[in-house]
Each structure stands twice: as structure tokens, then as C-alpha cells.
Amino acid sequence: MIRPSISKLAAVCLAVGIGLMPALARAERADRDKPMNIESDALRYDDKTQTSTFTGRVVLTKGTIVMRGARLDVRQDDQGNQFGTMQAEPGKRAFFRQKREGLNEFIEGEGETIEYDSKTDTVRFLRRAEMRRLAGTELQDEVFGSVIVYNNITEIYTVDGAQRS
Q1: Per the structure, how many domains does the chain have?
Q2: In whole angstroms, what is the distance from residue 113 CA to residue 41 CA?
Q3: Cα 77 to Cα 100: distance, rounded to the nearest angstrom
Q4: Are the CB atoms for 153 and 120 separated by under 8 Å?
Q5: Residue 28 lies inside a defined structural domain of this protein
Q6: Is residue 39 within 8 Å of residue 2, measured between CB atoms?
Q7: Which residues, 6 or more positions from 7, have their beta carbon under 8 angstroms from its beta carbon?
């Protein structure tokens, strides 16, 4: 596993990571100030396109946020908005979990692909998608579909194609 050390690679990872999750930080405000750590087997950074690609057993943590998958692509637009796409290994699903602000509740989700958009403050779970709301360890809500979109600002989610696969 590659664990970036204090180097240009670490500086790039930190710079990419700092802005990646503002959309998710609303759910747990303390997450906003936490450092981001991304572990993976490999990293490819393209300075021209401002894109980072982490591959192989990717684990992202930032405060209460935990994400796992096989590949994470991160880019930034000219306005500083961050966009991330986590892909699962073939036949598996990527994973997401975050604590909700001021509650002993968590949002968990899985999908073959998980997309983050800091501009719209949304998380999208795609293909074989599942999202759960847990109070402590007790399941409160569970939804399935081909696409689940969770809006961090309104805390509203929508489900398209609610079929369990």
C-alpha cells in the first residue's frame, strides 16, 4: 500500500483532499476541519487537468466520513468545486458512511459507483444502490434502487428504480 509521506505527492494529495468533501461536511460540521487521508495502492495526478486518480483498495477518511472502493477520481473546476467518483471492483459495491450533525445517526450507502458534487452538495449512489439511516446501530430507514441521490443541504433523498438487485 502507498501511504503518501511529506513530499510533493503528499502535498498534492492534501491539496486535492482539502476541498473534496465540503458537501459532506454539512452532515457533521466537525468533519469540515478534519484532515483527509486517502490510502490506495497507486496514485496518478495530472497537473494540467487538475485530476487525481487513486487505484487499488482505496480508503478515504475525513472526520466521520469513510469511503471504500477500488478507484477514486477527483477533479476540481475553475470555481474550486470538487467532484469525486468512487468505483467498486467488478461485481462489488463501493461504500460510504458519515455521521449526521448533532445526532447519534449515520447515513450509509453503497453502489457500484458513488459520486460527490460539492457544487450541488449531493451524493449519488449508482447501480445496485442502497442507502441506510442508522440510529446508533439500529436501522431506521433503508432504500434500494438503481439511483439514489442524497442532498446534504436539505437532507432529502430520492430513489429511482427501487428494485433490489
Answers
A1: 1
A2: 19
A3: 27
A4: no
A5: yes
A6: yes
A7: none
pTM for this structure?
0.75
Most distant CA atoms of the chain, gap in Å: 46
Cell of 33: 476541519
Asked if residue 165 is part of any domain, the answer here is no
pLDDT tens profile 16-32:
443 443 333 345 555 65
Give tens-digit pLDDT for 146-163: 999 998 778 889 999 855
Q: Write the CATH number for 36.
A: 2.60.450.10
Cell numbers 466520513 correspond to 65
- The range of the structural domain enclosing residue 139 comes to 8-160
Phi, psi angles (nearest 5°) of residue 33: -95, 0
Contacts made by residues 102-111, CB under 8 angstroms, sequence distance 24+:
103/135, 104/135, 104/136, 105/133, 105/134, 105/135, 105/136, 105/140, 106/64, 106/133, 106/134, 107/27, 107/131, 107/132, 107/133, 107/150, 108/132, 108/133, 108/134, 109/148, 109/150, 111/148
In a domain, 2, yes or no: no
Is residue 75 domain-resident? yes
DSSP labels, 19-57: TT-HHHHTTSGGGGGSPEEEEBSEEEEETTTTEEEEEEE
